[in-house]
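agent: user wants the full assembly modeled, not chains individually. Plan: 1) parse entity lines 2) check alphabet per entity 3) run joint structure prediction 4) return tokens. Steps 1-2 passed, two entities, 476 residues total. Proceeding.
--- entities ---
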Amino acid sequence: MGLVNTPPLSAQDDAALLALVKRGDEQAMATLFDRYSKVVYSVALRVLRDPASAEDILQEVFMQVWRSPDGFVATRGSLGGWLAVVARNRSIDALRRKKPMDQVEDMALAAPFNLANEAERNNMMERARGIIIKLPVEQRKTLEMAFFDGLTHSEIAEMTGDPLGTVKTRIRSALTTLRKAFQA
Amino acid sequence: MSATRHIEREDLALFAMQLLPKDEHALIAAHVAQCAECGQALAEVQGDLAVYAHTVDMHSPPAQAKERLMKQVAREKKTVPVERVATPPLEFVGRSEGTYRTGLGSGAYLAEEEPKRNWAAKVFPWVGWAVAAAVAVVAGNLYHERDALLSRMTAQAGRLDQVSADAAAAKQVMEAMTDPAAKHVTLTKAPSTPTPPVPQGRATYVAEKGTLIFLASNMEPLQPYKTYELWLIPADGRDPIPAGTFHPDERGNASVILPPLPKGIEAKAFGVTVEDEGGSQTPTMPIIMAGN
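--- prediction returned ---
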């Protein structure tokens, strides 16, 4: 049959695992969980600061993968990146007790990294952390307040006393610096 | 916000983080849906945010989280559930109508006055219940066995599909590489930049089958959000046909294997351009590599 040559699930790429998930393969689902649960849980925990709530988000995000794997077409970007962003958005929604806004199909994501590869993922994380830590403190704090605390630019401006335009520019500058550093 | 006026990156970042008021969010969503440039810019911002999300301190989820998820996954199986074997209502010969219609534990039978019965009459009803219980246990076991088998079959079918697809692709690659009708083209960088090592590409193309294999080496790294794109330039003067995007690895090697191409198009030449991530339908000048 040749099945002996099939790579183990842990070595398969996201697209192959999603195809198996679509057919109801629970082991493939478990492999995706092993691959990405840490980042999904960590993002949710950072936003919600409550392990039980973060675990609920973890469950919700992965059940979404199980229920509609078609929403994650490989060409639309990296599954790991997508899950991290969705975990953040769902956590902010939970924080604000809002209905989820993001639709899987509506979110394309350009990611130059293969986050399915653990070594590449860890390397990217380390580099990104190194870049963020070197940002001017105002930029770093502003981006953190917007992304992880879900504060609008008006709320940040009110809290910091900075003009609205400055808040927006700081967020953009921080993200631009991050991108340029990866281009270097 | 019009279709002609693009959205500022500042606003795209706030939009991506869902931090704008509903009306502004809706306006930008409508614009992005019809503006490819802003759609691409938004995808880049989402990519930046995904990278930023990964800077968070990492914590492993609680040990029972996976178990909890897998239980929920099992509850929402995608296989067609096997119908449970229905246990018929039990009625016993020789009993008056209505007896045992109510369940044990309902207490209904306690109100009945026990009629005088012989030994067989006392034992016989319990034999019936024992048989019913045995049937239910066997049926339950069969159901679970069938369910597990279905799950295993589904998983195996998925793997088999993938293996078959891989084998078919490998066969196609071999046929293309060894086909005597194949056209072999070497693409080299324009000689104006003689800096060694010179980027080089080799295309193997079978027009009749629309099969193309492109292998490149010494390719220069690209900025993130940029990609190389290969073009098939038809001999009949038609517009260049996009033949796949590629990114070189850290050693400068890259490949495009069996991109979806129409069959029967004779190639005049092949070219490579640098495009925005995601590729383009028309080549962006300059053509950095070409060969015929």
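agent: reporting back. Chain B touches chain A through 65 residues (CB under 8 Å). Strands of chain B lie at 183-189, 200-206, 211-217, 226-234, 241-246, 254-257, 267-276, 289-291.
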